[in-house]
Amino acid sequence: MSSVPRTLDDGVSRCGPGGRLWHAASVTPTLARRRFFALAPLALVAACSPRPPADPAPGAPAAPATPAPTPPVTTVPVAADLAAPGRTPVAWGTHLPGIRDVVDGGVALTFDACGGPSGSGVDHALLDLLRAEAIPATLFLNERWVRAHEQLTAELAADPLFQIENHGSRHLPLSVDGRAAYGIAGTTSYADARAEIESNQRTLTDVAGRTPRWFRAGTAHYDDVAVDLLTDLGLGVAGFAVNGDAGATANPAAVEHALAGARDGAIVLAHMNQPHGGTASGLARALPALRAAGTTFRLLGEP
């Protein structure tokens, strides 16, 4: 796959680490008229929090809250060869060199399953829609979610419509010095960052029967040393060009509007672990216009 620029030139101030703003006026253009949807504080972590149903039908009974059990994440021993390489990070964020947020043609829908006590739900309506419309999608699964849904993980991995990839073990920002995003402390060292990656690599290889080729960190934040670590491990680093559901907090109309901005080549980030969110309904509403515009959907494929 050819190298593709990863940054934008739209002069938009965006939320960066901890919700602070940074300006994108000096970065390189990529897709013509490409639209980037800025991260609101807590948006990417909100997918791990419960929320009420989106647009409930009048008189419909409320769905009971039934969070899935979340067994402990596998502990990874820290061996001597995992000692920190001594580099000090000099960059931090969601759009750094080495992070892919576009692909070579088509729109790549990606859906995160964050795991944890409030993030291990399953959006069956979304999965049913993808299958009914024959839309390929790449699913980034956290280890806690996988442990709560091992049979479903295996079933999804066996479906050629889906590509299963690594969303970390504890859903942490990937850092070598504990840097936080949205109040969530990142991995604390080179060894800790490697453990966050490799524990779920082993779990997904065992449960899904295939070793992941891509990684997306919890909160989608990285420092430059962590990005290089992923590259050294042979993994693609999945970013995003379109924030499709604001951490599964967006209502259907907002999801539809976000997806309407997905230009050819965009990687779209959304969520599949909050069944009461607006993601499935918003995608259903967006599809007619996307199809009419000739949009094609694709898997991420190889890094």
From TrEMBL:
Superkingdom as given in the UniProt entry: Bacteria
Biased composition (Pro residues): 52-74
UniProt xrefs under InterPro entries: Glyco_hydro/deAcase_b/a-brl, NODB_dom, Polysacc_deacetylase_ArnD
Gene3D superfamilies given in the database record: Glycoside hydrolase/deacetylase
Residue ranges occupied by any NodB homology domain in the UniProt entry: 105-298
Gene Ontology biological process terms from the UniProt entry: carbohydrate metabolic process
MF terms in GO: hydrolase activity, acting on carbon-nitrogen (but not peptide) bonds
Pfam families cross-referenced by the UniProt entry: Polysacc_deac_1
UniProt-annotated stretches for the region Disordered: 52-76
Protein name, UniProt field: Polysaccharide deacetylase
